[in-house]
Amino acid sequence: MPRTKELIKGCQKGDRKSQYELYQQFSSGMLAIALRYSKSTLEAEDILQEGFIKVFENIKKFRGESSIGYWIKRIIINTALNHQRSKLYLYPMVDVEDLKEGMTSMSVDNLAVEDLMNLIQGLPTGCQVIFNLYAIEGYHHKEIAEMLEISIGTSKSQYARARKILMEQLEKQSKWGNERFQ
Amino acid sequence: MKDFNKDKFNSAIERKLAGAEVQPGSSVWEGIEAELLKQDNRRMQKKASFYRNLAAAVIFIALISIYFNLQDFAYRNNQESTFLPEKINILEDRLLLDRNKSISSIPAVNSRNKQNDSEQIGEKTIGNRLSNEKSGNGNVLIASNEIERSNLLSTDENALPILEKLEIRNPASLSELPKLDYKIEKVSYFAVSNVDKVKERSTVRWNSNVNVGSGNFNPNSEITETPIFSTVSTLNNAGTNARTLTDQSSATSQERNAVEDLSSAPMKGNMSFTFGLNLGVQLNDRWNIKSGVQYGAFRSTSSSSTVLRDKNSDKLYPYHGASSSTEISDGRVVNAISEYELYNDFQIITFPLMLSYKIIDSKFDVSLVGGISADLILRNTLKGGSQQINEIEFNQNDRQSYKKVFASSIAGLDISYPFADKYAISIMPTFKKALSNITTENATFDSTPAFLGLNMSLTYMF
User: Fold this and answer.
1) What ipTM score was computed for the predicted complex, to two decimals?
2) Chain A to chain B Cβ contacts (< 8 Å)
3) pTM score of the predicted model
């Protein structure tokens, strides 16, 4: 932790070595986040690059009220949202459907991280972003609606759609796995 | 605002993705660094612009000072050459004798045009002024010269004490002036600033000065030529194995052209810093000769999209066609990468010999300075603006593009302000240029570095 503080101070002074070390410390975690909000690694790397440039531009404003990791994560997510914002309305909205309660966390637990990431990346852009914000980042629909300037209903419907697609995919994979081992 | 009411499905996904890490490619940091470098450069340009404006302001003020000094100089020359003694006509103050028999004076307003009129009026009224000019409150108006000349004075009962006082006010000669009995400790600078300096002709005086300076250094803005030794290196993509080509096929030629395009951006001057110590001899009141030692850290910049890759260590080194051609060896190849900023840093020790001629000797002394210098390159390094690119130091004789020692000419204008009898501060805009090409036989380009700077110095005169 003291080392991270030194790095932050170095970055605030514009020291390139500190900037590089801070990047090295957080870039892989942040790329995993950027991947969830993008369709490809290339796009995620663009988000990461743009996000870290914003981090170094604004690090003088960082007061240490939250952890540096959380602060960088917020910037990466905001950058990702800006990237995806134009695509959010390209997909038709669906009604909220009854969610299948039968699917348990077991299906997710059996899945590799890369596969789960691929499933999330495979979601339509609009519901992918909302699913990330609601299911993983923990925002309320009201907050998501304000962030993305959409209605609460749209946020709910997009989340439901994402969840439905994911569960269908997981079910398929589960069936495929079972058939394979029978 | 976390929502803690999520179901097991969401929790499972969150748990699964928590702490997930994916290593980004090296191009991401290169892109970040390139953007940060651009921002740094923009900031540097703003700073440089500020210092340029400051230097321009200093020079402007100096020029204004020189102008006014010249005016003063011309005036005094004119005074010395065409001085004619002129009789000064002074109208006497008018004296007021009040009821308490004390004298007050009313200053006379002197005007050349009205002088004759006043004299005429004086002659006409001289006989009856004292007797007739009585104010309403009993005061008597008189003129001091009239009092001495007028016989009427003796008829007035107030005249004797007045006369006694007037004799004190108007002594017969300067030697009779009463002397002050206290010591004068300080005299205002402004009170004596126009007093001519005592000229000490043909007097040799020693002086020494310390100076600091800043300026713009450029090894050569024209060196954009990119020599490629096709027998030992060729362009290839980063990360792939190097190929060594000896033929002059069209493919090789295309690659060579590509390298030239990628690594031959012009070298641009950048901010530099100098400081030093000089010892001088003032031969007479005009000529001064000085010599000493100066240290300078000079930087020039360029951009490049190529690096040298060491095949054995896989380390990357900066590459600029004109500056680092001699670094190419059997173990190194040229790789194309994204554009980066490249810095060529020189550390130079200079031994100048300068002769100055004072053209203005006034409050601000202005001298023309000319001279030569021997310059010794202590260090010549090439740095890339990236952590991944290592620094190259040109410390081996067979890899040096520049000669270790070279000669330069110096020209400048020294504007100094003497103070406290033995000190002077000065600013000196300087232009310095190498007398000839300073590159070695190894280099395939010519270079005659130029330096434009502003020196500030403090001189002590023994």
Assistant:
1) 0.80
2) 98
3) 0.44
